[in-house]
Write a structure and sequence with these properties.
Blueprint: E1 5-14, E2 17-27, E3 31-36, H1 43-50, E4 58-63, E5 78-81, H2 93-104, H3 108-117, H4 133-145, E6 151-155, H5 163-178, E7 182-187, H6 190-193, E8 199-204, E9 207-213, H7 214-222, E10 225-229, H8 233-242, E11 246-251, E12 254-258, H9 262-271, E13 278-281, H10 286-305
This protein binds adenosine-5'-triphosphate.
Adenosine-5'-triphosphate binds next to β2 and α1.
C-alpha cells in the first residue's frame, strides 16, 4: 500500500462554525510532515475526517489512495494517536494493547514488541488510569504501531512529555520516516518540530496557508539580514550603504546589514580593504517563520472574539 495521506477540498461546519474551509494537502512517504496552526485552525477535525470519525460536508480524505472506511484491517494501514486519554483506566497498559490487538487480529507477540518500542516495558502491567500524560502518549504510540502501518498520524504527541520524552519522540518520528513511512504530526510548538519535520503544512481558519519544506520556509523568513563585526564601523557603514544596504549599529563593534546577502557583504568589505572578524547570515528559527505566516489568522480570530 502507498504510504500517503491525501486530503482534498475538505469542508466541514459545526453549526455556525466553519471548521474546514477547503482543506487540501498530501503527506508523502519517507518524511515527517508537521501539521501546524493556531487553536481552532482545523487540525484535529481534519485528522478525525481522515479516520472516518467525522464526516466531511464536501471533499475527500484518502489513506494510501482509499477512504478509511474501505480499509480492511485499518490498523495495518494507518496508526493514529488522537486522544491519549481514550482508554479504559482500570486495564493495565498491556491488557489495553492485548484487547486492541485481539480486536484486529494481531498476535500477542506484537503487543510485547510495541511495548518495547514505545519504552513502556517497566510499566506495562500497571493500571493505565494511573499514567501521566507523557506515559499515555507512549501508550497511544504503542497502539498506533500494532499493525506496523505505513502511515502514522499523531495529534499533539509531544503534549505532556518531559524533555527526555520529547527527545525520544523526535528520534522515534525521524526513524519512522527513515523507514519510508508517511508521518503526519500536529503541534502548536514549532520548537518541538525544529530538527524533526522535513515538511510543514501550516493551516489557519480551516485551510492551508503554506505547504512547504522546512528549509524553504526558514530561508524565506530569514531574508537578507547579516550581522557584521568590525572595528572599522564607520568606513564599513559608508561602503555598505554605497552598495545599497541599510546598515544599523547594534553594538560597539557590531552592525546589522539588511538588503545584501552575506557573500555580497564580504565582497564589499574586501573591495574596500575593511577588516572584519565576523559576517553571519541571520537564520530565522522555525518559530519566527511560523509566527510571520500565521499572524493574519491569529488576528482574524482575535477580531472575531472582540
Ligand atoms: N464537535 C464539535 N462541535 C462543535 N464545534 C467543533 C467541534 N469540533 C471542532 N469544532 C470547532 O471547529 C474548529 C476547528 O477545531 P479543531 O479542533 O479541528 O482545531 P485544531 O486546529 O485542532 O485546534 P487546537 O489546536 O486547539 O486543537 C474550532 O472552532 C472548534 O471549536
Amino acid at each position: 500500500m502507498e504510504a500517503t495521506i491525501e486530503v482534498a477540498g475538505l469542508r466541514k461546519r459545526f453549526g455556525a462554525t466553519t471548521a474546514l474551509d477547503g482543506m487540501s494537502f498530501t503527506v508523502g512517504a519517507g518524511q515527517v510532515t508537521g501539521f501546524v496552526g493556531p487553536n481552532g485552525a482545523g487540525k484535529s477535525t481534519t485528522m478525525r475526517v481522515v479516520l472516518g470519525l467525522d464526516a466531511a460536508d464536501a471533499g475527500h480524505a484518502h489513506v494510501g489512495g482509499r477512504p478509511y472506511r474501505e480499509l480492511r484491517k485499518p490498523l495495518a494501514h494507518v496508526g493514529s494517536l488522537l486522544d491519549a486519554g481514550a482508554l479504559q483506566p482500570s486495564r493495565s497498559a498491556r491488557n489495553h494493547l492485548l484487547w486492541l490487538a485481539h480486536s484486529q487480529g494481531f498476535p500477542a507477540t506484537r503487543v510485547d514488541e510495541v511495548i518495547e518500542i514505545s519504552g513502556l516495558a517497566s510499566v506495562a502491567r500497571r493500571r493505565a488510569g494511573g499514567f501521566s500524560l507523557g506515559m499515555r502518549q507512549r501508550l497511544g504510540i504503542a497502539a498506533a504501531l500494532l499493525g506496523d502501518p505505513p502511515v502514522l498520524m499523531l495529534d499533539e504527541p509531544f503534549n505532556g512529555m518531559d524533555p527526555e520524552g520529547i527527545v525520544w519522540m523526535r528520534t522515534f518520528l525521524r526513524q519512522k520516516a527513515r523507514e519510508g513511512r508517511a508521518v503526519l504530526v500536529s503541534s502548536h510548538l514549532m520548537s518541538e518540530l525544529q530538527d524533526t519535520a522535513d515538511h510543514l503544512v501550516v493551516v489557519g481558519r480551516g485551510r492551508v496557508i503554506a505547504d512547504t519544506t522546512v528549509a524553504d520556509l526558514i530561508t524565506a523568513a530569514s531574508g537578507d539580514r547579516v550581522t557584521l563585526r568590525t572595528t572599522a564601523r564607520t568606513p564599513a557603514m559608508t561602503a555598505l550603504a554605497g552598495a545599497g544596504a541599510t546598515v544599523a549599529t547594534t553594538g560597539s563593534d557590531t552592525l546589522t546589514v539588511d538588503g545584501l546577502p552575506a557573500a555580497s557583504v564580504i565582497t564589499v568589505l574586501n573591495e574596500n580593504a575593511i577588516a572584519f572578524t565576523e559576517v553571519s547570515a541571520h537564520r530565522a528559527s522555525l518559530e519566527e517563520a511560523y509566527m510571520e505566516l500565521t499572524r493574519e489568522a491569529v488576528e482574524f480570530r482575535a477580531g472575531e472574539q472582540a
